[in-house]
Automatic annotation (TrEMBL):
Protein name: Amino acid/amide ABC transporter ATP-binding protein 2 (HAAT family)
Stored SMART domains: AAA
GO biological process: L-amino acid transport
Source species: Marinimicrobium koreense
Domain ABC transporter: 2-231
Gene3D superfamilies per the UniProt record, alphabetical: P-loop containing nucleotide triphosphate hydrolases
Keywords annotated in UniProt: Amino-acid transport, ATP-binding, Nucleotide-binding, Transport
Pfam families, A to Z: ABC_tran
Key word Transport present: yes
SUPFAM superfamilies noted in UniProt: P-loop containing nucleoside triphosphate hydrolases
One annotated GO molecular function: ATP hydrolysis activity
Amino acid sequence: MLTIETVNQYYGQSHILWDLSLEVREGTCGCLLGRNGVGKTTLLKCITGLLPIAEGSIRLNGKDISKLSTEARARAGIGYVPQGREIFPQLTVEENLKISLGARGDGQTKVPDHIYELFPVLLDMRHRRGGDLSGGQQQQLAIGRALVLDPKVLLLDEPTEGIQPNIVRDIGNVIGKLNREMGLTVLLVEQKLPFARKVADDFFIMEKGHTQASGAIASLDDHLVQKYLSV
Ligand SMILES: Nc1ncnc2c1ncn2[C@@H]1O[C@H](COP(=O)(O)OP(=O)(O)OP(=O)(O)O)[C@@H](O)[C@H]1O
């Protein structure tokens, strides 16, 4: 479904992604794991088009999207929730959601009802400024904003970072609902292993810019955790 093949990426002279390959299967939730600085965020940005790749291909349902603009990739079905959420603090919740509507290219001017059904708090707070929301509410807004574009695959960069435990559970439930009930394919970067085990089907462990191990999340054993993830 989302196929990354022998991707290489550089920041200037620094070679960050090295012949990286992985496949997120249709309808599954894949989880990218790895210590700080191994290139997880860089990979997500390469998939969205925010960063160019030097070599390799990124295919969505067989079509190479690696030369498309970020906006064209969004229209093709790549949804992205960046690390740190990056909502617009001065705009209202509704305005934050409506900003994405413009990129749909179908003239729709109303926020789809299912966004507010998934996140009732956004409906309650739709006239409040994004900056007035709690971290957990902002995360829900950032996910809602990505869903406005009806993505085929949703990329989430550490959605639980800095969020209190009961809201982490809510976010896990929403990802589960999107993935398992609504069939949305998900690629998640996550540091919290219990969360990853709860929501993911597959894992991809990155080290030094490429995939070192991958498989069903149930096969992520202590040996792999010790070798590639413990700090
Ligand atoms: N804009 C940049 N310019 C130069 N180097 C960068 C830039 N952004 C990231 N890097 C470097 O690229 C490497 C990969 O960073 P990246 O943020 O992708 O890692 P990560 O696995 O997502 O880490 P984290 O868990 O800390 O977010 C790191 O060595 C980082 O210092």
